[in-house]
């Protein structure tokens, strides 16, 4: 499975150790112990709804203090994202804290939508950001999970490669950012729990 540096060569933005392991542990434990609710997707009518055949994940209601800390870290990296993607960005959406348990997944999708009934906030999205709080591994342990690969499609423009998926080896502390129109999925979790933070810059 490709390491994070491989995705840099394909135009994605990668920062290893964006969060240190101590912070990852702290937020992961808070997410685990917080109230967890089923995450929704944008339906055909432009409204958010829970459709577990498409997205089976929980989001954690962490403290405002944690939300604000993560938001500050994301805003601090905005100038580098602007330089990397040659974009002018204004802000980012409130971070979401996601918890995947055994069997959870998210089918292939993009994070932007330009249909008439889509919320303006979704239309405005330009860059997606994912921060890993746990690591993909074959080992068993509280900080590890198996399966659950973040897989990207269409990274190579050659038609022969358009449907080929490149799966990222998730590492605690890693930030990866990509244009919102890129198709991607989270493959089913085999064991353990996968914790990530996601946000979208506009």
From TrEMBL:
The cofactors named for this UniProt entry are:
L-ascorbate
Q: One of this protein's Pfam families, by short name?
A: 2OG-FeII_Oxy_3
Please verify whether the record's keywords include Oxidoreductase.
yes
Ranges for domain Fe2OG dioxygenase come to 91-202
**Keywords, A to Z?**
Dioxygenase, Iron, Metal-binding, Oxidoreductase, Vitamin C
Record-given protein name: 2OG-Fe(II) oxygenase
